[in-house]
Amino acid sequence: MEQIRTFVAIELDDALKAGLRQVQEQLKSANVSRIGRWVSPDSVHLTFKFLGNVPIGRVEEIAQAIKRACASFAPFSISLAAAGCFPNARRPRVIWVGIGGDLEPLKRLQRSVDSELSNISFAVEKRRFHPHLTLARIRDRARPREREAMGELISTAKLDASVSMTVREISLMRSDLQPTGAVYTCLAAIALGNEHP
């Protein structure tokens, strides 16, 4: 049976994508921006869980598990928070924007999704959930001084924390790796609680 690369995520609305675009433009205007492989804001999402390669025949079973996870949740709001980097500002490898807003229901929802998926044989996530949106990955060939300069730049990035969106559904996503980058397709959009898309 055909295998597809899948993950569970919240898809962003246009307002949050525009907010990310503004932060990216600030960072890209610096001369060290060439060390980053920049992610198009149109393809950024808030990942809950990466499932890896799964048989296409399991999509409905996975969607049903996510539906059970979402059943007791009401819609809630998320916003953009400060920019940062992994693992730290001196040696950044990933540049991201954090998530603010209703973090408690967001984290509970992620745990609920993880738990329901563990019931159908997906391993429980070992790493603590750190809600963030990836803006760029630093190229391996970047020099230490360039990395440090980018880390300093990130700490000065300005973003509009008033930009928010209401989370009403969770998506089961397909990821197809292409030479130009990953192409994402929504396989199922599961509404929170009794919401209807």
Could you please describe the fold and organization of this structure?
With 197 residues, the chain is an alpha+beta fold. It has one domain: Cyclic Phosphodiesterase, Chain: A. It has helices at 14-28, 59-70, 103-118, 144-156, and strands at 3-11, 36-38, 45-55, 76-86, 94-101, 132-138, 164-167, 169-178, 181-191. The chain has a five-stranded antiparallel sheet. Strands 3-1-8-9 form a four-stranded antiparallel sheet. α2 crosses α3. The longest helix has 16 residues, at 103-118. It is globular and about 50 Å long.
Corresponding CATH superfamily: Cyclic phosphodiesterase
- The CATH topology corresponds to Cyclic Phosphodiesterase, Chain: A
Order of helices and strands: EHEEHEEHEHEEE
- Alpha-beta content class: alpha+beta
Low-confidence stretches: none
Question: How would the global form be characterised?
Answer: globular
Tell how many strands the DSSP assignment holds: 9
- Let me know the largest β-sheet: 5 strands, antiparallel
Helix content: 25-40%
Second CATH tier, the architecture: Alpha-Beta Complex
